[in-house]
Amino acid sequence: MRALTYSLAVVTLFALTLAQSEGIKDTVETASSSANQEDEEPKEAWMRAPAGGVAVKSGEDALLTCVVLGARGKPVLWKRARDLQVLTAGGVRVTRDERVTVLHDDSEEPLQGPGIMKGGDVWALVIKSVKPSDAGLYMCELNTEPPVRSFHKLTVISRGLTPPENQNVTDSYSANVPTMALAHNYTDCCVSANVTKSCLGYCSIQSILDGPGQDPEACQADFPAIVKCMADGRNHVPCCIQEHIPDICQDVCRGEYSPVTDNIKTHYSCAASMEKTLACIVEGIELLPSPPEDVEVEPLNEKQLNVSWSPPTENAESVTEYIVNVTTLRSFDAHLIDPSESSLKNVSNKMIQSFTYKVPSNKTFLVLNDLLPFTMYEVTVTSYNIHGSSLPSYGIRSLTLTPGKMRTTEVASAPKLPDVRSCCINAGVNHYGCVDKLCDPTKTFEIGVTDLMICAPWAGTTFGCLANGLDHTPCCRSRGLPESCLPLCSGNITTLDFNHFKCLRFMNSYTNCLLQGYGVLPGPPSRLHLTNIDTDYAVVHWAPPAALADTVQYYNLQYKSLSSEEDYRILGKVQSPFILEDLESNADYEIFVEAVNEHGVGEASPRLIFRTQSQVIEEEEENANAYNITACCERVQLSTVCMPLCSYDAKMSDLRTLAPLCEQEFNKLVRCGAGGRNHETCCARRGVPAACRGACAGAYSGLFYTCIAYVGNIVQCFEEGTGFLPGPPREVHAVVSHDKLFLDWTAPTDGANTTSYTVHWQKVGNNTQPYYYNSVQLDNQMNVTQTMARIEGLEVNSTYHLFVVAVNEHGTSLPSSMLLINITDGDKDNKEVSGIPSPPHSLSVSSHSATWLALSWQPPQFSLPDEKISYTLYYKMPGQNNQGNVTKIATTVTGHTLEKLTPNTQYVAWVKAHSDAGDSLPSETLLAWTDPAYPAFVEPPTINPVNLVVEGTSMTILCIAMGTPTPTISLYISGRLVRQEVTRHMVTVVHNVTRDMDLISCYADNGYGTPMQASRKINISHIPTIQASGITMAAAGDSVILECRVEALPKPTIAFWRDPNGRTPVIDGPNYSIQLISDPEEQTKYTMRLIIKKITEADEGDYFCHAENAFGKTLRPVSVRLRTSNPHHNVTECCTQMNVSSACIDACSFHLDMDNIMDRPECMNDFDKLMKCAADGSDHRSCCASWGVPRNCLELCRGGPVSRTCALQHARRALACFRDSGAKMPGPPRNLKAHAAPTPNAVLLSWEPPRKNPDTVYLYRVFWRAYGAKVPEKLDTSETSVVLTGLQDDVRYECVVKAANDVGTSSLSQPIMFTTAGQETAAAAAPVSTSGTASAVGVAVACILVAAILLAAGLYYRHRKNLRLKAQGGVAFENPSYLREPNPDNAVNGTMPNGTANGENGIANGISNSAAWRQETQNPGSTLAAAREVDPSLYEELKLGHDGAGFKRLKP
Questions:
Q1: Given the DSSP bridges, would you call strands 887-891 and 1031-1034 parallel, antiparallel or unpaired?
Q2: Strand partners, 1298
Q3: What is the predicted pLDDT for the residue at 1261?
Q4: How far apart are CA 1101 and CA 567, in angstroms?
Q5: Which are the contacts of 722, defined by CB distance < 8 A and separation ≥ 6?
Q6: Which residues pair with 113 in a beta bridge?
Q7: From CA 1188, how far away is CA 1194, in angstroms rounded?
């Protein structure tokens, strides 16, 4: 978070600089335009301003000069650029700031200066006693259109700094613009510090102004490096101190940045001071020097160190002196340099001492004298000039030598190398590149592939000369060179090929072996050992090598951790002894040393392995004087859930999470955090506002959310103060004897750094509070050094208030308790008074209603931090003077809610605190009224989005209710209670809205008056949904109506398509009529209707209902099909085939003539044949049953034999059904056959579609049973074949099939007999007749079934009873679905509905005559499956209501 604040402050600070850059551009343009102007009056107005800005010290007067040419009487305005505030207009001051004036001379006399014609052209803005806040850009503007402006920069320099020379010359028009902070670019520094590439926008002031291009939060980890580079090694702290920047926020002034972590101490606020901080940095970049470079420390002997450095890179010419700081870190016992004693425990001097030395600017070295032998020192160097200083250079640590040792200052020359170059030339190598690289042992490591290829002809000569007559193979083999490269080491190589290219990787080792073989490199260092091995460092010692020791210039030390796979880390240019630092504790390391002379690195010393000491965290003896915040929280019984906050290292995430739970216990946390110490001075120093400093004195003020930004500042003061400030005195007692008072107390138990005590006392009068809540000072004070005091001269018959605080040089403690003492004449004998906590205070009403009051108060300010405090709250009505009417409530928190109070009533309340030391005095008395009671009033619900609630989305419902006490609001949606809460404003979000959630009700009740309900009906917008009518059958020339039911909101636009992909529409016209009919009862439902007039074959096919509104569109198909154009059934032809007598054959025509039959009794013998022909193979029983034909006569309706009574009474109705729907129903399937199946125990049945209406058939039902069985099995299929499985071999089966379409079913097909081997040959043609007994049984069963059917048909029959049949029985229905069989041929109780396989009687060819075939019949829809109760869905409950009515429904 501070990173974001910091970045915003940067942009704010330098926005003015950006404006100034624009002003400079304008100034240059105007200046160039005036170059050719002479003394004549300009035609257009223009301005000039000094090229450089104005820089003045804080407190001095600033003068900004503006030259306006060609003003022509127009007013000149001075404005402040950052807020465009007008300061002056003409010669008049506009701003209220009296320090601002304008100087202008209307004189016509010319003034000195280029381009200035007369005195009236100069307008000077004067700011007296400038402040740092006055710094910035100012604008001189001529009130023209467009305005003419010039910009003027004012820089205010701190009093401790001196501005650069020639920067305060206001009348100078020099073109030399000084280097500005705007050009401060520290990108190179950021790159070297590995700042993330995307965050480099923060590494230049200019790029910050232009926009860094990255979110500050993403660069949080890089800000420490960025801030360090921004400070550029300069010490800006003096300027920050002068600008009163809190010390906690001065890390940026030192180039440091404390990353924000989850630790609460890192969450401190510096936002208020960030602008001043950056201003100091900008100022210091121009004035202050950078740190010295290349600081080196070299030990000379046991008492001297030589320190050297280079001048700083920035402002080096301004350096006046250098300050060398030397800090003593550790001194070691000299005898420990002996390796045999290295295991002894180190003895370190923990006393750290620092010394400073001043060095003139013309010197860059210093010899430190009189140092301690074998002691570690840290040295830093700082640059100073008249403006300030740089930051210290990086610290260099060095050891002085052991007694008797001196640093060798002169290095002898190493032996010369053999003249390999002359050897090659003499041997005939004439290529310069080959001689230069392959004949110089110091350059062999530079050999590349190209060199080997070019010099291959001289390979034997060059490598032989390099070997110098020696065989270096052992060395090369030990260095890991491959076998193919070893000839190079011996010099015995004749040719070079590509196999030697891999040797280039080992050229460094090869070169080193050559030099070692020449004898020019030093030998391995000897006596490598370590002393003073600690947890994180060790002192490494070694002796010079035996060979060429005097040629050694320095040593390389290499080490690595054995627990990691990292390579050796190299520390170059070191000397013995050397401090090896930054080691890990309890870790194994390997170390060796190499000597280096002018020729290279010599052989390494033997490896040495050592282990650092373990970081043993010894349990230190508990210091009785140490302060333990956790123990304090436990003693005050802080809740367990809040204990994670009882630490100076608490987590900010825990604070955010636990704040709502622990808010009433913050006073305990603050008391224990303060520890009885007064941290107000520290908090003021660290920028904590005065309103939040009560917490610094252990008094929680309740401003948690206001002061949360400063919690890190406060906690840092708490932790710092526990080590410096004294704890509170304890057990304060007083003995009163007349006008004298003797005080006694116990010294603080935590912190033994108390130096004195201060006793405060004050007389308490009628107009004086007994103590001050926010002050720990009283009128009278006494300083003592003992834990007792004597006060004399007190007034008799008076009351005094006393307390004691501990004092030391860092500050004071808080009082642990207070004493309130009455001095009376009767106090002749000694009267003892003990200290008690001060009373609770600030008792107030935090919230209230008609029946309750929420009271809160602050804990005693004077109490021990770890003192367990409880409270008793007293309250009563004012008129109740009896002590028994006072109600007492005990609590451990600083707040309580009084409930079940009387409305509009006054109550009196006060609080006492209790501790082990005693009870406090009562707090102030509070008078509080409860609110009057008002009945609940509820407003109509507010729904968002307004008038645009879409199905499937979310809606927000706001219920607002008034009334006192607070009412209970209930939200109902379509009668269902959804939510209930005691509040005045209840917001509810309902997700996945459905279209039936259209009635929203808010209900409010507070127990007074009549409850109130307010409702709102809303419209749920939704995408159209369509229910299509399916397939409609019609005859050519009929009028057909295709319908789709649409539900949509808002109202949809509709269309009928023939091709939805090609968007071929149906156009309303002579042949088509399109209608959209609204439902009168439900406004969101519509009927789409397409009327096709006189349908033709071109109109047959699929149509698509299309409905669309703003929320989507829906498409559903409907279809119309023409009946086959086969000629109507010719009854005469059928009668002829059935052998109807010639006397009755004329009754057979295309339709049976019933009147003709009734007039001739001789035709009654052929009646069954005539009816069978009229039925045309279709099953019309459903139609007949709907017209009231009794169950025992329904066989007549599919051409079956019936009694004469049935024939006479119901034949006309049967013929009416034949005529009405006969052409629409299917005929029986044909050519039923059985075939052997490829699988065992199975048979394949096949048949052909019926001749009548084959295209409309959608279902075939197959019935089969073992011969002689009573109960058949059935199977439905849409194909014209089926495989029956589970059959038994050698068992005869009989089978029939019937067809069904949307209108009804056919009669049964001809039965067949079959076995698993296939169909029996003659079975299909044999007629089957039913015996009289079988018919009687069938009729009996049919009567039982038809009783159930008639129950369901009753209502439908009564609805149709007003219709009358004509004599011929013809009834027309436009919609054939009225006659549709709901579920054809359901088996009832495992039996098949009645029927015969054919219309003949008797048994032929072995076909069973069982009446079971005749049990297959229509299902009139009166028989339902057993229903069961199920729970409704949520929104069904909402729709049905909350009263429970209809909450159960039947599910089939």
A1: unpaired
A2: 1261
A3: 92
A4: 84
A5: 627, 629, 675, 677, 750, 751
A6: none
A7: 10
3-class secondary-structure state, position 1299: strand
Helix (H, G, I), strand (E, B) or coil at 896: strand
CA 819/CA 586 separation, integer angstroms: 58
Whole-number pLDDT of residue 621: 42
- Tell me, what's the pLDDT at 1239? 86
Q: Do 1198 and 1366 touch, CB atoms closer than 8 A?
A: no
Which residue has 């080792």 as its token pair?
A: 509
Whether the Cβ atoms of residue 945 and residue 906 lie closer than 8 Å to each other: no
Mean pLDDT value across residues 265-272: 77
Q: Residue 1424, class by beta-carbon neighbours within 10 Å (0-12 exposed, 13-18 middle, 19+ buried)?
A: exposed
Q: Is the pLDDT of residue 629 over 50?
A: yes
* 724 pLDDT tier (thresholds 50, 70, 90): confident
Overall average pLDDT of the 359-369 stretch: 91
22-31, 655-664, 1182-1191, 1281-1290, range with the lowest pLDDT: 22-31
How far, in Å, CA of 92 to CA of 90, rounded? 6
C-alpha to C-alpha distance for 748 and 727, rounded to whole angstroms: 5
Sheet holding 1112-1122, edge to edge: 1031-1034, 1112-1122, 1101-1109, 1053-1059, 1064-1065
For 248, phi then psi, to 5°, come to -70, -20
Distance CA 831, CA 833 (A): 7
Residue 1159, classed as helix, strand or coil, is coil
**Do the Cβ atoms of 366 and 396 come closer than 8 Å?**
no
Confidence of residue 769 (pLDDT cuts 50, 70, 90): low
Mean pLDDT calculated for residue range 996-1025: 92
**For the residues 308-316, what does the mean pLDDT come to?**
91
1027's enclosing H/E stretch is strand 1020-1028
Q: Give the CB-side neighbour count of residue 712, counting CA atoms within 13 A.
A: 21
Q: Which residues contact 336 (CB under 8 A, 6 or more apart)?
A: 342, 344, 346, 531, 532
Q: Looking at the predicted structure, is the pLDDT value of residue 632 above 60? A: yes
Q: How many CA atoms lie within 13 A of 1047 on its CB side?
A: 10
User: CA end-to-end span of the chain, whole Å?
Assistant: 64
Measured distance CA(1103)–CA(1099) in Å, rounded: 9
Higher pLDDT, 988 or 120: 988
- Beta strands 1031-1034 and 1112-1122 are parallel
Q: 148-157 and 54-57 as β-strands: parallel, antiparallel, unpaired?
A: parallel
Q: How many residues in total does the chain contain?
A: 1452
Mean pLDDT calculated for residue range 326-335? 73
Judge contact between 111 and 118, C-beta under 8 A: yes
Tally DSSP H helices, then E strands, for the chain. 26, 74
Q: How far apart (Å, rounded) are the C-alpha atoms in residues 265 and 1315?
A: 96
CA–CA separation, 1452 and 1441 (whole Å): 23
Distance CA 730, CA 865 (A): 11
Residue 1343's H or E segment, with its range, is helix 1332-1360
Tell me how far CA of residue 948 lies from CA of 182, 944, 1051, in angstroms: 54, 8, 14
Least confident of 491-495, 553-557, 707-711, 1342-1346: 1342-1346
Confidence of residue 557 (pLDDT cuts 50, 70, 90): very high
Between CA 121 and CA 125, with CA 122 as vertex, the angle to 5 degrees is: 145
User: What interhelical angle do 459-467 and 507-518 show, nearest 10?
Assistant: 50
Q: How far is CA 876 from the centre of its chain?
A: 51
Note whether 354 and 264 are within 8 A (CB): no
Q: Is the pLDDT of residue 119 over 80?
A: no
Tell me how far apart the alpha carbons of residues 666 and 400 are, in angstroms, rounded to a whole number: 55
| β partners of residue 870 | 914
Q: Helix crossing, 1167-1175 with 1204-1221: angle to 10°?
A: 20
- Determine the pLDDT at residue 825: 63
- Which amino acid appears at position 577 of this protein? P
CB of 320 within 8 A of CB of 422?
no
